[in-house]
Amino acid sequence: MNHFELSGGELACEDVPLTRIADAVGTPVYVYSSATLERHYTVLRDTLAGAGLKDSLIAYAVKANSNVAVLKTLGRLGAGADTVSEGEIRRALAAGIPPGRIVFSGVGKTTAEIAFALETGVAEINIESEPELDLVNATAQGLSRRAEIAIRVNPDVEAGGHAKISTGKAENKFGVSFDEAERLYAKAANLAGVRPVGVACHIGSQITDLAPMEAAFVKMRGLVERLRSEGHTVERLDLGGGLGVPYFNQPTPPEPDAYAAMIARVMRGLDIQFAFEPGRMIAANAGVLLARVLHVNERPEGRRFLVLDAAMNDLVRPAMYDAYHDIRPVKPRPGEPVVYDVVGPICETGDTFTRDRALPPLEAGDLVAFMSAGAYGASMSSEYNSRPLVPEVMVKGADFAVVRPRPTYEDMLAREQPAPWL
Ligand SMILES: *Cc1c(COP(=O)(O)O)cnc(C)c1O
């Protein structure tokens, strides 16, 4: 459920008509609903607790939507943060998320980033390879620290979803095999700079079928039991993120209670603290990208292009992952649906949001909303074509606030400097 509904004939976010935001901030602009973010987090937390998975660490995957206002909204409810760079750790800290609830993941952490994480005192560094284990150990010893680590395992399951966001097959770059995990855990237990506290996995994103997750989690339980039988302490089992969200017209993902029930069943009797790293399921349906129609371009060859002021630099998912976003007029006009190719102004054919989409009739100047754009939208945006970074707005009830302003052209140019010989 989300809080983007028609009210008095036009689309609103909570109690704020989207037209008001477009008039005040301009388009394109991302709009987030606090109530939806809060609801998604609390539903997951309460569902996990209800299934008996109490005191789980829910570390929101910052990369899905890293705006500090989003992180603060979730952090206030007790969410932790799953981070993949020093920048993300800094964002989580800026949002007031305590280091004890921050997990540091990622396949290519630099020495400087590891040192920063150690000095910050993050709860867990997820180790993705043996060279990384050695690097974290050496870095921690150099700082007279002991890093709490989890070994990230690649469970070698096919999770569905798009190939570019699937992470759980042996051929992907993430994690180590089960055999290697056992060996690395034993090695880590004898290193002075690290303390292994658990094991982790994350098999992919936008997963709409529980079966591959269940297969992976059964294997993870087996690993915990083997490690314990070898005399190791295993306190935490990090099951990653990846649960899909309904993107309209797309395969329906499992409900959180089915997900929680499956985990409770697989893990019955295993005394351990669970950690989760949900990103998309918290943020995706809590945001829309609002854009304005620049032209309706009817071509003699028969195609009808809806040219928007938003482009692939603002929302890259359709170009990069062939992603589907429901597109809704903010003030729907009456009339039969019309078939459009919806495109942005960028000079490449990839800047196409969708082809042959039947939509209510639209005219130049109308506003449209890309639904389910709260995750992997603004956080993947760029200034390609020298289009200033897309702004972000947070709504709460009848209030809204600009939480990332649109840079001016002067701001954009001020970030560069001339080479001395130019
Ligand atoms: C991307 C990522 C997540 C979040 O994935 P979602 O599909 O957004 O839930 C969680 N953990 C790790 C390690 C990731 O890389």
Walkthrough of the structure:
The chain has helices at residues 18-25, 34-50, 68-75, 86-94, 111-120, 130-142, 178-189, 210-229, 256-266, 280-283, 317-321, 409-414, and strands at 4-7, 10-13, 16-17, 29-33, 57-61, 80-83, 102-104, 124-127, 147-152, 194-200, 236-238, 273-276, 287-298, 304-308, 327-329, 338-343, 352-359, 367-370, 392-396, 399-404. With 422 residues, it is an alpha/beta fold. It folds into 2 domains: 4-32 and 284-414, Lyase, Ornithine Decarboxylase, Chain A, domain 1; 34-281, Alanine racemase (TIM Barrel). The strands form 3 sheets. Strands 4, 13, 14, 15, 16, 17, 18, 19 and 20 form a 9-stranded mixed β-sheet that branches. Strands 5-6-7-8-9-10-11-12 form an 8-stranded parallel beta barrel, surrounded by 6 helices. The radius of gyration is 23 Å and the shape is globular. The model has no long low-confidence stretch (mean pLDDT 95).
What secondary-structure arrangement, pairings included, does this model have?
Blueprint: E1 4-7, E2 10-13, E3 16-17, H1 18-25, E4 29-33, H2 34-50, E5 57-61, H3 68-75, E6 80-83, H4 86-94, E7 102-104, H5 111-120, E8 124-127, H6 130-142, E9 147-152, H7 178-189, E10 194-200, H8 210-229, E11 236-238, H9 256-266, E12 273-276, H10 280-283, E13 287-298, E14 304-308, H11 317-321, E15 327-329, E16 338-343, E17 352-359, E18 367-370, E19 392-396, E20 399-404, H12 409-414
Bound molecules: pyridoxal-5'-phosphate (PLP).
Pyridoxal-5'-phosphate is lined by residues 61, 63-64, 82, 105, 202, 205, 240-242, 277-281.
